[in-house]
Amino acid sequence: MKTAENNSKLPDDFKSFEAEIKVASPGRINLIGEHTDYNNGFVIPAAIDKKIYFRFRKNNTKNLVRIYSETFDAYVEFNLQKITKSTNSWENYLLGVIDEIQKLGKQLQGFDCILKSELPIGAGISSSAALECGFAEGLNSLFNLDLAQMEIVKLSQRAENNFVGSNCGIMDQFASVMSKKDHFIKLDCESLEATLIPAKIEHCKLLLLNTNVAHNLADSEYNSRRQECENVVAVIQQKYSAVKSLRQVSFNMLEEFKEEIGAIGFKRCQYVLEENERVQETEKALRDGNLQTIGKLMYASHRGLQHQYEVSCPELDFLVDFSEEKPFIYGSRMMGGGFGGCTINLIEADEIDAYFEEVKKVYQKKFDITPTAITVVPDEGTQITR
Ligand code: GLA
């Protein structure tokens, strides 16, 4: 990778950068509860020990923002009074955050920021939430904006909805900000009530296997899944006015409206209702330390995402199928929005190296792509590190 020293656009005064504020903002995993957040359901995510690191300083101007991404070796300048969409997607996460902060009536001034990421992009571990939340937290601290953690979560989600154009739910930003080391969060995405559950997985570890594919269907299909669910809610609502989201929809209601909502609507929503039940069962199994049950629920979640919600892809299915024969893997499933990214695997720690060598060979042979292994530990949410 190139360094700051040979990026021609980089201002001289970036070469010695005395940071006033430093922030570390994590990616996230999700044990179970996929595509349930925007349906006001349940999820069990956790922040991870892989992060984006930010350094901030004021630059004594009124409106000039200067940002350097060490990861992309990219330098960009914005004017705080002229926040418009960029053609570079990573910049939009930051522009969106600035826009949402300004919409809250909070005053920003010129500042500089350098960032560096250890999160792979398109892997389904939410580098985007890490970017938004870390950036928002840094500005909060640099300019004493007095934003509570929950405001950081919500404005970061809005930045993604309004500026980036992804209609995402709240899980990623919530997990990135609110997580606690060595815990999962069981989040009720309707009430936003969060319960911490100790990540008691004994001799096991959480292994992410990155397919290293990111099919470009991801964004459009994500938004259309959300729409499909909302359409069903709109139909059921006509008779049952208390129904505001799939959260108030029962299996019986789905049966009752089976014809009207059509086969696709039916299976999408059936998946969501079943996944919410699996989250509840996983919470219990996690508290009981019952890894077998957690694993079974993870596999069932994957099959639902594959066949009912249809957001998986051949590469993810292959990795999950391959793991299913292994006695030392309790559970495996695709994680995040789908159409590529990672599987999350609950695996005996001392089997990881040998298993990765084995799966790498067969995956490479089949798809001509090398997968990547990332072992993760549930970690603290976005933090000021000074
Ligand atoms: C993406 C979104 C989340 C969530 C997941 C699917 O990560 O950002 O809000 O919907 O997909 O569970």
Automatic annotation (TrEMBL):
The answer to whether keyword Nucleotide-binding applies is yes
Q: Which residues are in the GHMP kinase N-terminal domain?
A: 92-179
Biological process annotations from GO = galactose metabolic process
Q: Which GO terms describe its cellular component?
A: cytosol
* Single GO molecular function: metal ion binding
Query: Is Secreted there in the keyword field?
Result: no
Q: Which parts of the sequence belong to the Galactokinase N-terminal domain?
A: 19-55
- Protein name, please? Galactokinase
